[in-house]
Amino acid sequence: MLRNDTFLRAARGEPVPYTPVWYMRQAGRSDPEYRAIKEKYSLLEINQNSELAAYVTRLPVEKLGVDAAILYSDIMNPLAGLGVKFDIQKGVGPVVHHPIRSEADVLALSTFDLEPLASVLKTIALLKQSLTVPLIGFAGAPFTLASYLIEGGPSRTYRHTKQFMLRHPKSWNLLMERLSDMAARYLRAQIEAGASAVQLFDSWVGQLSPVDFRHYVLPYVERIFVALKDLSAVKIYFPGVASGELLPELKTLPVEVIGVDWRVPLDRARFRTDNKFVLQGNFDPLWLEAPRSAREAYARSILEEGLKGKGHIFNLGHGVYPEADIASLRALTEYVQTTSRALRAT
């Protein structure tokens, strides 16, 4: 039963008593209990076990006291519904067995089927019954998923992706259509299963110039959110790291919240988006290793800046690193909630 809706109210720009906080990748790597689970099960095995995935999703709510839960899953999961074979390799990340390099490869993708994702939707249904805070579902954005499909895995230069985009625009558009329609269906299914909000992760789109983003990617991001406009769930777009120059391009997106990485101050992000959105972010995750006094001073500066805009949700500018100390995360959560309450009362 939902008892704490502070995150949802803040996301809609409504008055809240304090700044809500959650962390990307809060369910996982920094938690010793989670690491013990990972010694027995792979990420994909956990995802296929709805009870276990729900348990892992709940862990940070109980241990960190955050104001929202984010589904324990992976952005690669829906690609199984297109017939894509992939692994998540330790120390590497997603590895696609047969990378896409031609129009024939795009045409060979299966018609999207939600059936391989039944366990994910069951996990959401279980969480809806047990969580006291909102659940955030998510999907990978078309460019980021396309980069894995074309590169075959993580990349530093995204050379093959950009070559495909520039040399084969017809095939690129076809691939982006397939991926955006897949993401829209997957996010809709998550909302219908019980997610109160959804976030579209575009982890690597900061590799593009604003011109290339506007021409080759933005129409497909818009396509996803337009397809969800009839649903009341909160919509969040996170354009990943190094994406500050892309922020002015996002003004037309039909979303409530834009995620910001730590490289862009909130006041600049607010200016670049004409204060149209609630902003989410943007604590540098490596600052979790700073002395507590410095860490709290940094967090306070973000909270103070967040009060000046349409709304603010405290988060990291990227995911929690595996080396993060769970006690530091808990202390940061308490500091954000307590300090923001005091700031809002003055």
TrEMBL record:
Homodimer. Pfam families: URO-D. The record marks 74 as: Transition state stabilizer. Catalyzes the decarboxylation of four acetate groups of uroporphyrinogen-III to yield coproporphyrinogen-III. PANTHER family: METHYLTETRAHYDROFOLATE:HOMOCYSTEINE METHYLTRANSFERASE RELATED, UROPORPHYRINOGEN DECARBOXYLASE. It catalyses: uroporphyrinogen III + 4 H(+) = coproporphyrinogen III + 4 CO2. Belongs to the uroporphyrinogen decarboxylase family. The gene is hemE. This is Uroporphyrinogen decarboxylase. PROSITE patterns: UROD_1, UROD_2. InterPro entries: UROD/MetE-like_sf, Uroporphyrinogen_deCO2ase_HemE, Uroporphyrinogen_deCOase. Pathway: Porphyrin-containing compound metabolism; protoporphyrin-IX biosynthesis; coproporphyrinogen-III from 5-aminolevulinate: step 4/4. Residues 20-29, 136-152 form the Uroporphyrinogen decarboxylase (URO-D) domain. It comes from Candidatus Carbonibacillus altaicus. It is an enzyme of class 4 (lyase).
